[in-house]
Write a structure and sequence with these properties.
heterodimer, A: about 375 residues, Hypothetical protein af1432, elongated, B: five-stranded parallel sheet
């Protein structure tokens, strides 16, 4: 009899251990979501984890809108009314948000909430709390086996929601910082362009072309982000070029060209304090280098020239050719493309030109 | 009844896996040592072997190689459990003919799903 009891206790203990180990493995896996700074990616990941770990058919992540007045669906899998918004104080989702703890509503059809979300029969909701404020909620519905949610399910959902809250808030902060940074850079560029009417809009267009080339080349997303900043800043050194030269209505003299050609190095010197932007600075510094190394300012060639600089060189030239200059009318887009093809392998990296041509073909309808 | 042999020097892991697999009516033999495991595998001819990588005396990889070199039992699928997580380890494990490479801590539920997939759900 006693042996039976011991065996029973041991079996319970092992079962508990198994539940704890499940939670541990979930935390271990989900802690990796911090590596992602994309809110969409984080949401997709926590939905997968919720469905697999809690064995449910449906999971949804809901976000609180900016005013904190309604919940809307950010991501979901399974049977969920994705377009529906849940206004404040409306029903069970809000109960959870207000209580700030997870709530399970089993056999929903037999409760006062029957018909609240018609296609589901049992529901468990947990708020997603950031450090500063409530982000939203995660809802799971309809277990694969049975209708009841148990305390172990609630524990697992809370573990997911806790990690999700911090990761999502982190991603929000990152995105705000990035917007602030790019906004500040754009202000700087506007200030620069205000001093010369010949170059108005040049930076934004070059940025658009460079991003097009970079995306066609399938560059990694963080390199694309850096390329964007590099493109926005590429002519920042012209802040030190005398206005009379930038605004001159005639062809430039040799001495004036020498002044103009200083802008990449001055740009790099201005930006040197931005320690995190080492490769952006090199992109700015070398964006007038020639692929074959013959006519550039520093005489670098081939792979010695950073990829961002090689892309910028094509984008910058394309915009210069298709814009009016004091001493010449602008070329047509077709003429400019031909000129860039002609200089592939000498002035430009052939691989970048190839991507540029592909991108131009995709943009045909725009041109 | 399908049969699975689990070899790991951590007793809790053995108990937990056995508990989980038994819920699916799978016969489980647990071994805390790897040194006599080859003979037991030969005699029992399980449907699947779950092996820990890091064990004293005989490592999971060595035992795996021994199984794969024995024509009688070479076809038995092997899951490798380990706390190691680097890609190179996984490569090595997969090169030895390991069916799945599972990093600890793993989800017992997912393990059961993988076991059912590997041995067929009867």
């Amino acid at each position: 009899m006693e042996t039976n009891n011991i065996e029973h206790d041991l079996s319970l203990a092992v079962h508990e251990l198994s539940v704890a180990y499940e939670e541990l493995s979930l935390l271990y896996r989900i802690s990796e979501i911090y590596a992602s700074l994309s809110v969409d990616e984080i949401c997709a990941r926590i939905i997968d984890e919720a469905i697999n770990t809690i064995s449910v058919q449906t999971a949804a992540v809901l976000f609180l809108d900016e005013k904190g007045e309604k919940l809307y669906t950010k991501a979901y899998r399974g049977a969920w009314e994705s377009k529906r918004e849940f206004p404040k104080d409306d029903g069970i989702l809000w109960k959870t948000i207000q209580a700030k703890k997870s709530c399970a509503f089993c056999k929903i059809k037999e409760t006062e909430y029957s018909g609240y979300i018609p296609m589901i029969s049992s529901l468990m909701v947990c708020p997603i709390l950031g450090k500063a404020k409530t982000v939203g909620a995660i809802a799971v519905a309809d277990k694969e086996f049975g209708e009841e949610f148990f305390s172990k399910d609630s524990k697992l959902l809370m573990a997911i929601a806790t990690q999700a809250g911090l990761a999502i808030e982190n991603a929000f902060l990152y995105s705000e910082l990035e917007t602030l940074l790019v906004g500040a850079i754009r202000c700087l560029v506007k200030a620069l362009e205000a001093t010369s009417y010949w170059t108005a809009g040049h930076t934004e267009r070059v940025t658009e072309y460079a991003m097009g080339i970079g995306q066609t080349m399938d560059l990694e997303s963080d390199l694309i982000e850096k390329l964007k900043i590099c493109s926005l800043l590429h002519d920042i050194g012209k802040i030190a070029t005398p206005k009379e030269i930038l605004n001159k209505d005639e062809k430039l003299s040799d001495e004036e060209w020498i002044e103009i050609k200083k802008h990449p190095i001055i740009g790099a010197e201005i930006l040197v304090e931005l320690k995190q932007f080492k490769d952006v600075i090199l992109g700015v510094k070398y964006h007038h280098e020639y692929w074959d190394g013959r006519s550039g300012i520093f005489g670098l060639k081939h792979d010695e020239i950073p990829i961002m600089a090689r892309i910028l060189s094509v984008a910058d030239t394309f915009d210069a050719l298709t814009s009016d200059r004091p001493y010449r009318r602008k070329h047509t887009k077709e003429e400019a493309v031909r000129e860039i093809m002609r200089c592939s392998g000498t002035q430009f990296d052939p691989a970048v030109v190839e991507a540029f041509l592909k991108w131009v073909n995709l943009q045909r309808r725009v041109f | 009844m399908k049969k699975v042999i689990v070899i790991d020097d951590e007793p809790f892991i053995l108990m937990m896996i056995a508990d989980k697999l038994k819920t699916a009516k799978i016969d489980v033999i647990t071994l805390r040592e790897s040194k006599n495991a080859l003979e037991i595998i030969r005699n029992e001819k399980p449907n699947l072997v779950i092996l820990d990588w890091m064990m004293p005396e005989l490592s999971g990889i060595d035992l795996c190689n021994m199984i794969k070199n024995d024509p009688d039992i070479a076809a038995i699928p092997i899951f490798m459990l380990t706390a190691k997580g680097q890609d190179s380890d996984e490569q090595l494990g997969l090169q030895c003919g390991v069916e799945r490479y599972i990093t600890k801590p793993f989800s017992p539920k997912s393990l059961l799903d993988m076991v059912k997939e590997a041995i067929g759900n009867e």
